[in-house]
Amino acid sequence: MHWNAGTLISLVSTVLYGAIFGLVAFSRPRNQLRRIFALYLLAMVLWSSSAFLTTSGLVNVLTWFKIMAASPIAMMVGIFYFVQTLFGLRRKWAPLTVFYAILAVAFTVFSDLVVLSASLSPSGELHYELNTPVIVLLAGVGYFLIVVSLVDLIKGLKHTQDANHRQRLRYLVIGLSITIVSTAANFTELGKYPIDVAANVLTAILIAYAILRHNLLDIKVVVRLGILYSVITAILGSIYFLVISLVLNIFNLLAGEELLLISILVGALSGFILTPLRNLTQTSVDRLFYREKYNAGLMLQRLSQTTVSVLDLDAVADLVLSEIIETLHINHGAIMVKSMKGGYFRALAQRGETHGMNLAFEADHPIVRWMKLQNRILTKHDLSIHPTFKALWGKERQDLARFQIELFIPLLFKGDLVGYIVLGPRRSGQPYTSDDLVFLSTLSNQTAVTVENARLFDELEETFVQTVSALANAIDIRDSYTSSHSQEIAGWAAKIAEKIGCRPDQIKSVYWGGVLHDIGKIGIPDEILRKKTSLDRPEWDIIYQHTRRGAEIIAPIKKLEAVAPIIASSHERYDGLGYPMGIKGEEIPLGARIVAVVDSFSAMISERPYKKPYTVNKAIHELKRNIGKMYDPAVVQAFLEVLEIDASQIDS
Amino acid sequence: MNNSYKLIEEGRKDELWKKHCGFLGLSREEFKEIQERLMREQLQLLGGSKLSQAIWKGIIPSSIEEFRRITPLTTYADYEKFLKDKNEEVLPVKPFTWARTSARSSQDPKWIPYTQTMYNHLSDPVIGAMLMSSCSEPGDVRLERNDKFLMATAPPPYASGYISRSTKDNLEVIFLPKLEDGEKMSYGERVATGFKLAMREGLDYFMGISVVLARMGEQFEQQSQNSKPSKALLNPVVLWRMLKALFISKINKRGILPKDIWHLKGIMSGGTDTEIYRDRIEHYWGRKPLEGFACTEAGNMAMQAWNYKGMIFFPDNAFLEFIPMVEVEKNKADPAYTPSTVLYNELDLGVYELVFSSFHGGVLMRYRIGDLFEVIANEDAEIGSGLPQMKFFSRADDLIDIGSFFRLTERDIWKTIEASGVAYVDWIARKEIQAGNPVLHLYIEPKPANTQTAEEIHAALDRAFVSRFADYQSLKDMLSINPLLVTLIPVGSFTAYMQAKIKAGADLAHLKPPHMKPSDAVLKLLLSADQ
Asked: Do the domain assignments include residue A469?
């Protein structure tokens, strides 16, 4: 028997294909696709085993060489039929390929017109002679079939939207490409090397991986991590044994102290070299078979660090959504959160093209109920599959399709659905992978806690805001001359802020500044607040304190933290002659400058015990007169635009 | 929306199963929620359409309870003036197409508008039936791309034609013959062409009336002994198929049966005869037919599961209500009486008349289709279903009530004839008064080879009735009468009747006389047809 690289590779290939063939042939149920794939694998077993037998010299070389030459033809037809069946293609000429296969294989094996001679030299080198025109003719047809199959596979790969199916097809495409390239080597000088069989080993590994990792052919094989590690350890143990045996052979040591010494030395050296190799292999196994956990861990680490300290619900939602959208390159998405009363869900953050998107479901909506019950990501495919969603309305289905909704990610906290994340397609158009889903699922668990905390905090703050608003209303009512005054001021102030170009959060703060600017008056006694005659100095001192008091009242409410400075400075003047701090110009917060203008305007056009109301024209005239003294010119100008009044006419 | 062929292509068989058969696992409460939600959508769609306003008389119900309270039980007569001329302006949603029922010569057909959503829904139950009919356990999906499918049903504008088209849109199967070709053929031609093609291409699924398969099986059994080689055997695939079949039949020491030629994955059928022919079909074709219930007005409504027991209704096809039999009888006695209804989730063992309201923009509201169903079990643990298991009981008008003693359905009589061992071609049954007593009058055409005399056939049938119905014996004992009258009709009468009907241009569904309560005119034609 001859042993060389070719023999070893062929043996390995035979074992691999034999194992995969066994896996496919004996898995249930046996459908047409599996049967055809089993035939392809059988051809590969025959190819590899005949290559092994031919080069080993154990059998009649010419006969087995002929079988080796015929096997690729069977393999090519097998793969062609497999792809045809996989995609349900029905080429009219397809049945002819069976006749081709039968004739070509029989012609190759039973005649001497294809393989002219084949023999092994005493040193084990394979010598053969082929009838080139005939072999080109026979192999040409096979090549045509396999190229057609490759094209079909690539088309299918592009077409499918299912991530798992893509993976399966991808490995088949790679495997087939390797086969095409490697068998082409047989027509070159490289033909004397077992490149094709070596490539077959690679293809076998790819197919095995596709079966184990991606359920190719719907074959579900659960491979435990422990078994994979055991295999690695066994291989490394064998290497260790071979190294020691080799060293012992080299040094020709059979017994004695030297044997022990050399064994310890070689063992120690092997340990040093092999341990990093084992670690590296185990990491590779982790990445190959458990990649999702590996990647998700890294990505979540970043998010957990950033969200843990944020308690503002809007900020949390914004942060999480931005991270998801950017990390996974998603076109658009939204985070919905349960409303305070719990009857429906409202949008908290939206990113991308979400114009007109309304996914604020009620609490008893089938999608909401499903997420609460299943606690797993709902894909758009689930919507057409799970019987619960038979309850969806036609219009709802249309909307989901129009907004291209791909995923609903539940945010569950202690069994309660506190919110959900809605995601559109990826910018690349590629479907979400199982890794993405695992990542998003892990993220949702973490986000749910943060969102719920923020939501509870938000609810608490909301209660505060409502209480404070109620107080503001109470003050309005108490100060009968300024009844409804705060709401009116808030409305104008928000419009000015918008006109000036403030951000939405700033506009919101200015609005609340308007509502609550007089909240500090709660500490002013009625006799001062409702006094019908002029105030004396001590009374004015009490009045002057109300801005500071107002700021102090709302300071503990985090949600309104940007409002406190507005209230505190709402009676400052642009020229620095205001109170309580006497700051001027840009030192005064913009919100306070806005509130100052609208508060004055409101006071001017209102009746007071000590004055009649100004006409609007007169009030505006007064505002303009005090530009740069009491009021910010830009704010006054914006206010006039809000009131849609032509300032020049007032002047005239 | 996932087309089912995509799920098959991508190996997502679990999802395919869940999509089409997952409803079996719904609880009664979940079923009700789906029904109510879709009904709320339907109320919105119906809105203020002229048709709904004509029924509701100006009121728009705001809840399902109100809908059930204010909407009268309807029949086609309530819609006829709007639908017979296909007036689309009165409809709540513009129809995608119009389907028609088969009509007896004296009547106009019923025209039913199908919206796009209704049309799209037609295929879901068919695919479900294909999965159920070919599996041996839940999730065992044998449906594959390019499976060969012979649908021996009527073409558009009959509902079955649209069901075929919708199935083609949603599934990659090969219709034998091609759907577009088959629609141009007569029924017989299409079935014959289908089986001819099946010799070459193979056959995986059959859908149609059971009698076709039963008759074919019988013909095989009779002819395979003395059949001669045909030209078709020149085709190597056909030759191989026949050689295999011959080999199997020789091993089993019998003639060739269809199951030796084709290995059918599933058979789907509907109608009373499915149960009658079930065992015979299994004998000839190797598989039992899976029974379903469909109608033009609502498409596919219910089907059996893989254990071939009770049928289960689909939750998203129509809003289901049922009139208990007691109420049906009260209403029969007093047509002015409005019978009460129960919902699907409220059903218990017993017989009920089906009432349904269309979903997806359809037009029918609390529609009495005239079919009775029997709840045979409240659940079926074998298939993991907590939903009522039902069986088609009878057409409401077809029940034969003999002296208020016992009630016979078409199936009861048919099964009794089968049990009697009488070799027959076909039969009809009427309730008649003979000498002041009510009797069941059976008109039977014996098979040409049947040598039994009229007395022998009567005796055999009488014995079968006695053994199957205790009330039949009681009637005999108490009234001292024999409530069974048998008349043998000449051989060839049914064939001649059919030919006369074909000549008169009758619809496919009315080529045969009805089994139950045929009119005097029908009886007269049948008895005189062979002349």
From this structure: no
